[in-house]
Design a protein that fits this description.
12 helices, globular, single chain, eight-stranded parallel beta barrel, alpha/beta, 8 strands
Length: 285
């Protein structure tokens, strides 16, 4: 079964478009990245387990695991195993993309059968088809790809909004993503070659849905980055499918604003509120 169909089925069954960004922050001068009394693996896995009933997938951010060396990558692998045990899909937020042979190695690392194997991976298309095709080649084997189109960060427009002869650069990339995914549309009407479009640019998110009628759109930027539920659901089709919305810091670190609650319980409460807000926004469209 195509990845996009599995994702759509999970959304229907759980009545949810919410996913958990597993982003264990690094220490700052005022706040530890890992709560007192927890190891990195415990913090990530217990948060995943607490949130599992209300989410369809996890999206671990590789940077926060890589920065912690071997121990971090072991925790990443354990987070993937925990998610699979709980029936959740896994999206490695790796943002990889390079020349063909290097992308092929990245694709094998994250979409193969090894320690870091995930159901899907995020990909940077800056080097063109050479960078993306090795990942897309894994789609017939049930894997998914989310290609960066219009990202949520404040400086994204520095390059992504540059004009081309007839439209902005990110819009050209969106058209290319729709083309790449055309051969991989499943029974849900959605392609396993998806796109990343941030909730922090709601007008662009609506435009992206027009340009990407068959793509599953991964929407970061909800919560801590300022994206609202009403903004995020603009990526969904009329039937409510075709979009998944990620929150990370606002969920994993909800305990900082909930004195007396253990981190997993605070995270679960935050994800329940997020799921409800997204469902209410979908119903109100």
């Amino acid at each position: 079964m195509y990845f996009a169909d599995r994702l759509a089925d999970a959304s229907r069954q759980k009545h949810s478009v919410a996913i958990l960004g597993v982003d264990p922050q690094l220490d700052t001068p005022t706040t530890p990245g890992i709560p007192a009394g927890y190891t990195l693996t415990q913090f990530c896995c217990e948060t995943i387990e607490a949130c599992a009933p209300w989410i369809v997938a996890i999206k671990p951010q590789l940077a926060f695991f890589e920065a912690r060396g071997v121990d971090g990558m072991q925790a990443f692998a354990e987070a993937l195993r925990t998610a699979r045990r709980l029936g959740l899909l896994t999206i490695a937020d790796a943002k990889r993309g390079d020349i063909g042979s290097t992308s092929a190695a990245y694709a094998e690392a994250f979409l193969g059968d090894g320690d870091f194997a995930s159901d899907a991976v995020t990909v940077n298309p800056y080097q063109g088809a050479d960078a993306t095709m090795p990942f897309i080649a894994k789609v017939p084997k049930g894997r998914g790809v989310f290609i960066l189109v219009k990202t949520s960060n404040p400086a994204s427009g520095e390059f992504q909004d540059l004009p081309s002869p007839d439209r902005r650069l990110w819009e050209k990339i969106a058209e290319r993503v729709e083309g790449w995914g055309g051969d991989f549309v499943g029974t849900s009407g959605l392609s396993s070659v998806g796109a990343v479009v941030g909730a922090t640019y709601p007008a662009d998110l609506k435009r992206a849905r027009e340009l990407l009628p068959h793509a599953t759109i991964l929407v970061p930027g909800y919560g801590a980055q300022g994206g609202a539920a009403s903004d995020a659901v603009a990526a969904a089709r009329a039937d409510g499918l075709g979009a998944i919305v990620s929150a990370s810091r606002s969920v994993m670190y909800a305990y900082l604003k909930a004195p007396g609650k253990k981190p997993p319980q605070a995270a679960a409460d935050a994800i329940v509120s997020m799921r409800s807000a997204l469902n209410d926004a979908l119903a109100a469209r």
